Amino acid sequence: MASPCAPLLPSAATAPPSEPPLPARLRPRTYSSDLSYFSRVSPTTCVVRQGLVPDMRVPCRFYVDASLESLLLTELRKSHEDIVGNAGGGGFMPAVRQVANVATLPGIVGASLAMPDVHSGYGFAIGNVAAFDMDDPEAVVSPGGVGFDINCGVRLLRTNLRVEDVDALPGGREGLAQALFDHIPVGVGSRGLLPLTASDLDSALTLGMDWSLRGGYAWPEDKEHCEEYGRMAAGDPSQVSRRAKRRGLPQMGTLGAGNHYCEVQAVDEVYDKFSAGRMGLEEGGVVIMIHSGSRGLGHQVATDALVEMEGAMARDGIKIADRQLACARIRSPEGKKYLAAMAAAANYAFVNRSAMTFLARRAFASVFGQSPDDLDMHVVYDVSHNIAKAERHMVDGKERTLLVHRKGATRAFPPHHPLVPVDYQFTGQPVLVGGTMGTCSYVLAGTQKGMDETFGSTCHGAGRARSRSASRRQLQYTDVLDSLRAKGISIRVASPKLVTEEAPESYKDVSQVVETCHAAGIGRKVAKTRPIAVIKG
User: Which residues contact 292 (CB under 8 A, 6 or more apart)?
Assistant: First the structure.
């Protein structure tokens, strides 16, 4: 059977030869006509030609195998069925069309890219990567290409403990989970334990992890293993609204809710012993993965910018395919303000994960009766998932400065890149791919092929396969909790009924996502981990 991505050419009998074809914007949208723009170019890659939506400036490239492709096309087909059911109006925006809409934005170069975990989001799809030429005066920045949780990211800590050490504790895994739950504030409306004044917050927004170091909440070597070394220099607290600061002030050092978590994990399998050794990972070892972002502050920064950019688009005559793609010229006052506020929110997220690292170290010290230093609780790496950054990349044989939007995607720079820490110069940048609370996670390394094809980007997680509302309707939280306990996973949650939204059944298979990245050459497998204790909001 032919692949769904095989070109489906319209029959010559569909219109008299004398009639010229209708322009793309006037043709009736059908599932079959959308499919005609797809073609599979490799077992892991599909290309969507320009024309799927009007005014595309570049093609789209999806890194999906046949099974993941089927999920995308099922969503696309359902969107057409919804349109028909609503008499030609309404319906949701599928990820395929969102990625194509991004290809219409001014200044985009190369292609609009989709990682294997891509799924529908706000404006940009989650898992969408797009780069814009900063030397092009028409090029834009779009908050939808970063997301509301600015610098949502993952940090991995290693230890010198083994799973047997955890199980030998008087309280075992349950006791360790409870200790972390007692130390790290979680859930909607949670408040941080760190004393923070308005002046402190401004300093944190400016300095990022340098503020954490100054306050004694981080180790000097932590920032060496952090993307951007834990600080985006463009961060300017004066560009962050009072409302955003009011939301962020009490939340520093909190995990939040949704898909955020702190997990104690066991290294289950090592694929690359040299790279794993450089990262301090070995089979049976215990690590801690922290997934969180910029909390309410980042959300407000995005909201503020979207409102301001509506006016900028009207002034500058910017036309967009979807109002959720609200944007501004990179060089415009609104563009500059957003980038400065976004960088400040990114610094908040770096400090937030540093604060929870501090609290996790204290929790482990209290349980094991040893100092964090004696437990070797060093940061392996800290990666950003939702960010836009100025980077140098090759485009059409020339090096250019690009504003790379990564929404639900991870930077994955190759060996010997100057921005990769010295400890990982021979391995490539560590990439942390979080699974769900009941499945494995992965550590990858960046590759040169990824640098050449995806602006040094790869996947960030499993990617949703089922909406949150559908998960709540179709799953029982007690069943989810029982399933986790049956796998030997101890769990503490602030809102048990919300765990259905994050159940493994709500997500794509993270192993399949990672295998696709590995096979496509845009990420190299280093190690796999599995959860043994989880805390969530």
Answer: 152, 153, 254, 255, 256, 260, 349, 352, 353, 356
Per-residue pLDDT of 38-80, as tens digits, reads: 999 999 999 999 999 999 999 999 999 999 999 999 999 998 8
106 in Cβ contact with 140 (< 8 Å): yes
- Identify the residue whose tokens are 């090759």: 394
Active site annotation includes 518: no
Question: What's this model's pTM, rounded to 2 decimal places?
Answer: 0.92
What is the Cα–Cα distance from 352 to 370, expressed in whole angstroms?
A: 24
Alpha-helical segments (H) within 12-151: 31-35, 66-85, 95-102
Task: List Cα–Cα distances, 500 to 235, 291, 437, 533, in angstroms.
Answer: 36, 18, 11, 17
Could you please report the per-residue DSSP string of 475-534?
--HHHHHHHHHHTT-EEEES-GGGGGGGSGGGB--HHHHHHHHHHHTSSEEEEEEEEEEE
Among 75, 82, 150, 112, residue whose Cα is nearest residue 463 = 75
CA distance linking residue 337 with residue 335, whole number of Å: 5
Summarize pLDDT for 239-259 with one digit per residue, the tens.
999 999 999 999 999 998 878
Q: Active-site residue among 299, 393, 460, 518?
A: 460
Q: What is the dihedral of CA 315, 317, 321, 326, to 10 degrees?
A: -30
Spatial contact of 382 and 226, defined as CB atoms under 8 Å apart: yes
Residue type, 57: R
For 232, the 3-state DSSP assignment is coil
